[in-house]
Amino acid sequence: MRINLLTLFVIFHCNNGNQNDNKVKEFLKRINSENYQNGIRPGFSKGEIDKVEMNMYINSFGSISESLMEYTISIFMRQSWRDERLRHNLTKLTLSYHYGDILWVPDLFFRNEKKAYVHRVIHPNKLITVSEDGRVTYSQRITLKLSCNMILLKFPVDTQVCPLYLESFGYTTEELMFYWKKKNPVQLNIENELPKYELKDMIFDNCTQNYLTGNFTCIKTVFTLERQYDFYIIQFYLPSILIVMISWISFWIDNEAIPARISLGLLTVLTQITQMSGLKNLSPAVSYVTTLDVWNFACLIFTCAAFIEFSIVNGVKYGVKDDKTTIEEKEQSRETDGVSTTMNHQIRRRHIKMKKFSCKM
Ligand SMILES: *[C@@H]1O[C@H](CO)[C@@H](O)[C@H](O)[C@H]1NC(C)=O
Ligand SMILES: *[C@@H]1O[C@H](CO)[C@@H](O)[C@H](O)[C@H]1NC(C)=O
Ligand SMILES: *[C@@H]1O[C@H](CO)[C@@H](O)[C@H](O)[C@H]1NC(C)=O
């Protein structure tokens, strides 16, 4: 009795398997026959607009280059549409990557792409599933190098907005329409961390284009990237503040200690210049002035001013001294000392004003 039941089960199971096999064979025969033309879009015979729903998973996001004005992302691009011709009576069908060439697929392209490829190791990274009602999901793994117009006036406290445009190449809006998936159209790999930026926001929008040849459907997502400037604070802002403060030490050194004041003044000026040239390798090569350049130049002015102040004080003191006779020298020198100290005070007051101004900056 038990053996009988087992045989029955096996037979039933095999029958079921055979049935499915036949259905799959019938389906594949249908799409390989002349009845299915992949050159014709699904809604053509009924005069309907084909609606393609897009969503993507960002596998990695990185290599943002300011000098080349581009960024690189690696994504799973998923497109989903309905093709009535592909209805079947199986629950769900997963087809191999070959069928990307056999079925009709939307003619998607990335408008701001510079270079892109579909990964092909070991086989082309494509996935096609067809559900019972003929809804096709087409997923590909693509790496894209995209152009992004960057404005670096506020560098290094800048925020960049980098778009990604998905557009149809051949079908106008009367034939094909792209939509973002309603919920979570772009998912992000949480393990992915950008080295220089932080991804703050993603905006989804319609960028349908009016060309002379017609209107072509286009959707876009815009990534808002905020630069992480902690590195620049430690590496540039704090050191240059310290250099300027060191240049002020010379105000406390006696104005007769000429070698000490000259070496301190020159050293701070030279260090500031070295700092500025060292920065060139790390800041983007743009022809306009960025905030960091302004900061550096202001610091250079402060260090130079401290040095010039000493030269003026020195000039005033010894210039007056030379005109006096030797008899009156002692008294005169005391007086000029007084003059120079008042001068010193005035200049010092002016410096304090400048310092306050720099704080406001
Ligand atoms: C699915 O099965 C139903 C009946 O079971 C049949 O009428 C229909 O034609 C089948 N559809 C396809 C696409 O084979
Ligand atoms: C985009 O805008 C066009 C008109 O400019 C409109 O016809 C189309 O439906 C819009 N697409 C989406 C996805 O909203
Ligand atoms: C394209 O769309 C604009 C409105 O957005 C419309 O005025 C124009 O007629 C359309 N052109 C074509 C060729 O459909």
TrEMBL record:
Q: Where does the record locate the signal sequence feature?
A: 1-17
Question: Where is each Neurotransmitter-gated ion-channel ligand-binding domain found?
Answer: 29-228
- Spell out where the chain crosses the membrane: 231-251, 258-274, 294-316
One GO MF annotation is: chloride channel activity
Q: How does it sit in the membrane?
A: Multi-pass membrane protein
Location(s), subcellular: Postsynaptic cell membrane
Q: What is its main location?
A: membrane
Q: Does the keyword tRNA-binding apply?
A: no
Q: Can you list the GO cellular component terms from the UniProt entry?
A: chloride channel complex; postsynaptic membrane
Keywords from the named record? Cell membrane, Chloride, Chloride channel, Disulfide bond, Glycoprotein, Ion channel, Ion transport, Ligand-gated ion channel, Membrane, Postsynaptic cell membrane, Receptor, Signal, Synapse, Transmembrane, Transmembrane helix, Transport
Alphabetical list of InterPro entries matching this protein: GABAA/Glycine_rcpt, Neur_chan_lig-bd, Neur_chan_lig-bd_sf, Neur_channel, Neuro-gated_channel_TM_sf, Neuro_actylchol_rec, Neurotrans-gated_channel_TM, Neurotransmitter_ion_chnl_CS
- The Neurotransmitter-gated ion-channel transmembrane domain sits at 237-334
> Sorted alphabetically, which PANTHER family does this protein's record hold?
NEUROTRANSMITTER GATED ION CHANNEL
Q: Which family does it belong to?
A: Belongs to the ligand-gated ion channel (TC 1.A.9) family. Gamma-aminobutyric acid receptor (TC 1.A.9.5) subfamily.
Record protein name field: Gamma-aminobutyric acid receptor subunit beta
In its UniProt entry, the species of origin is given as Dimorphilus gyrociliatus
